[in-house]
Amino acid sequence: MNRITQCLHGRGTVSSVMHHRHKPQADQPGSVLAFTGMYRPVIFWNVTDRCNLSCTHCYSSSGPGRTTEGELSTTEAFSVIDDLADMGVPLILFTGGEPLLREDLFDLARHARGRGLKMALSTNGTLITPEIARRIKESGIEYAGLSLDGATAATHDRFRNHAGAFDRTVAAFAACRDAGLRCGARVTLTTENYAELEALIDLSLRIGASRFCLYWLVPSGRGCESYARLQLDHNEVVHALSLLYRKAQEIDPSAMEFLTVDAPQDCVHLLASMEKDRSVDLPDARELLASLKGGCSAATRVANIDAWGNVWPCQFARSPEFCVGNVLTRPFSDLWAGADNPALALFRKKDAAFSGRCGACCYRELCGGGCRVRAHAAGGDFFSEDPFCYVDVPGFEKNSRLPD
């Protein structure tokens, strides 16, 4: 996760991180969690595989045709929550599918709240009415990330394969705002909505999003089928990052926070831009990013539990060889502590001998070799270069230009 706003406007963040470094992780402010160096993970929990939409890029291939068969029962989910609470995880993010289709979602949230856990929700927004927004807030969920993939109904509805999705999602922002529930926009940028990025930012600000979280496409689930068609080229990525950087400079950080996900190398562009601007926050930004110790959070600061209880290093690492185990046969806390688990060991090996451009790159310690899921998907080699990376490496074909 590349926290653009926090690095740009984060004076005092380094001292805050140092102040909270030795506190229990449950007591860590959300603004410093990524930098604390504590590896009890944020849990991305796909509580159901059912969804009322069938989005082109869905990393879990969810959709209307899915059933509840094999999903964790309420009792089983309560046991998982108890284990996560005993372990001291900092946050559970309920996602799906569409998590609001799970009938006991608010029971799970209330149970987690009773165990002292912080919670967030990732949703397509189409099912959020004023009443549902109120129930989300009352259940103890503190934040809702709503998917918004077009600045116009035509673009968003085409991407979500559902007419009317855009209007219902925009209305959901208003419902969350009226209920006092903090919410943000989750945008997956592709060739289909790339031209609308600035308009998407402006729309998100106008409808009350406190966070603009840009996701890059990852070849997982249905995203594998459309990856080649929808993925941006390197110059488009750099242009998008430059736009986000400019907007983060222009917009009051208390009004909207900017961040990108699924490409640890984005921090290279951020630091280069700050250096070009001679930003007074550059030393703190460098220290914060260095504290991540290799960029990617998979198997360290984040983990994924799917609807059937399978555990994965992150929500995109769904190849069979990446399965860590199942919470029905072994508690998550035990699985996470397994130093000999081959899937966890792969992602935790920050000093791995990468090949290609990642192996020769001078930024390798900063970004950790980019996204290993993309590298593996490109040819089956976990340690190959990340094909999505735009950073130029001497001796290799030029990809694109960072800020001069």
**Shape category:** globular
Radius of gyration: 20 Å
Biggest pleated sheet: 11 strands, mixed
Q: What is the mean predicted local confidence, pLDDT?
A: 91
Number of beta-strand segments: 11
- Read across the widest sheet, the strand sequence of neighbours is 1-8-7-6-5-4-3-2-9-10-11
Poorly predicted regions are 12-22, 30-38
Q: Number of DSSP helices?
A: 17
SSE order in H/E notation?
A: EHHEHEHEHEHHEHEHHEHHEEEHHHHH
The proportion of strand residues reads 5-15%
What class do helices, strands and sheet pairing give? alpha/beta
Q: In whole angstroms, how far apart are the ends?
A: 24 Å
Helix % is 25-40%
Q: Quick summary of this structure?
A:
The chain has 17 helices and eleven strands.
Description:
- With 404 residues, the protein is α/β, with parallel strands linked by helices.
- Helix content is 38%, strand content 12%.
- The protein contains 17 helices and 11 strands.
- Strands 1-8-7-6-5-4-3-2-9-10-11 form an 11-stranded mixed β-sheet.
- Helix 3 (74-87) links the parallel strand 2 (42-46) and strand 3 (92-95).
- Helix 3 packs parallel to helix 4, helix 5 crosses helix 7 and helix 10 (234-250) crosses helix 11 (266-276).
- It is globular and about 55 Å long.
- The two termini are 24 Å apart.
- Mean pLDDT is 91; it is low at 12-22 and 30-38.
